[in-house]
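Weekend entry, working from home. Most of the wet-lab plans are on hold until the incubator is repaired, so I used the time to fold the two sequences that have been sitting in the queue since the last round of cloning. Logging both here for the record. First:
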Amino acid sequence: MAADEPLVLGIETSCDETGVGIVRGTTLLADAVASSVDTHARFGGVVPEIASRAHLEAMVPTIERALKQAGVSARDLDGIAVTSGPGLAGALLVGVSAAKAYAYALGKPLYGVNHLASHICVDQLEHGPLPEPTMALLVSGGHSSLLLAPDITSDVRPLGATIDDAAGEAFDKIARVLNLGFPGGPVIDRLAKEGDPKSIAFPRGLTGPRDAPYDFSFSGLKTSVARWIEAKRAAGEEVPVRDVAASFQEAVVDVLTRKAVRACKDEGVDHLMIGGGVAANSRLRALAQERCERAGVRLRVPRPGLCTDNGAMVAALGAEMVARNRRPSDLELSADSSLPVTEPHVPGTAHAHSHAHDHDHVHEISKDNLYS
């Protein structure tokens, strides 16, 4: 870690995690997270208004915790990065508003970055600089995407995506049918280890010869599993929860890994990066490793704590933006709930950054109070 590498704070509020990370270059200094998942559990899913309010309450304490953990002052930062999309509009607004306030008060450049590109870039914190191009499989509650990134700061190309339910969404819905609670991913992963993945032949969506080679569909699988469970219950039979969990999970990770390895071969890329919350799934990791080794593809998967939504991934992409002299965002930056992955960040106009601080003298007192 060199002292001249960019020191960047990242803020992530796209869903129910208030994440604040601080990195220097590709070195992680702090990763503070405040989660509201327990508040949402009784509703069986994330409630946007509750998430937004939780972000509002957690923001300043989480930023202060990250600065303390990193052992740096806010004045030392070289930039502030924030997820500006995609995600829940209200939740994103809280993070973007906070980032703009800190950037303005500190006189630091602001970088509105893409949530999906951040999930790819976080791997730099664990395995060093990303190869160019990078092939990435991103799987979470809201996204299942295959992406090719020749340059993570400016060129991310979608090869395929889910046409209905995302993988993580399917895990949550099947967990609900099995009365396993929310979130569903971790508990299904745990129960599946004690079940037989070959006991029930659940369908593999979009794997026919005429189907889109890189797109995903988990809605049919979800319906098939739900109907199988309902039939068992209607017949008065006990549902073999562990076997259902194992067979369902196998169907999901089989399709994900098969398509990802195929994309690597087709594009001539010799490595695969897997990110997003579902990348914490132990069977996905194991099967991906097995198939990548057979295909001569090197697998890169961050540790589970960096796969779920966090501020470290946003800071990692922000630091890359600073290092490559990408243009900062305007202070007029807004949240964009459907920001396309083809836009890794939201650059401002050339004059915006200097203009943002024309009236700094008016705020000197408040700055001293905030950051002395």
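Second, folded right after the first finished:
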Amino acid sequence: MTMQFAAAAAIESAVTAVPAAAPEAAAAHFAARLAFEADVSDVHTDLTSGAPGVVVVDSRSRVSWDQGHIPGALHIPTARIAELAPQLIGGPESRVTVVTYCWGPGCNGATKAALAFARLGYPVKEMIGGFEYWAREGFEVESTGGTSRTAPDPLTAPISGVSCAC
């Protein structure tokens, strides 16, 4: 055995220290994640195309909403979902899919809001990345000061502003 091969054989993989799931289990897991989550690019595509059957809900406070929110979103703070959802969205029988968001990956407000909608019987998904990634991808933002857009962050979105198409 060469010295180089012996050294390579002694290296342990951090990735494979816990073996990957069987392909069938992995397929079930990733399909389930897609049933619970939507990314900002997909939400943006649906909102700009006018795709039916999707309602986007910002679950943050009024101050946060005023600072900036997704154009076309409804403002329903989590604590008021049970009270306001039926009049703003319709009942669960309307069969629209509710997409919740909050600040970003470090905030679980959208998860709490999605849970509240699910408990009321609404089909619901959480927008991963939240408002932070919406803004970082360069999509329009509404605030009390009007509508604005920043350049896409090259660490989160293609600089061209065109979807990554993943």
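Plan for Monday: verify the second prediction. Residues 23-36 form the longest helix (14 residues).
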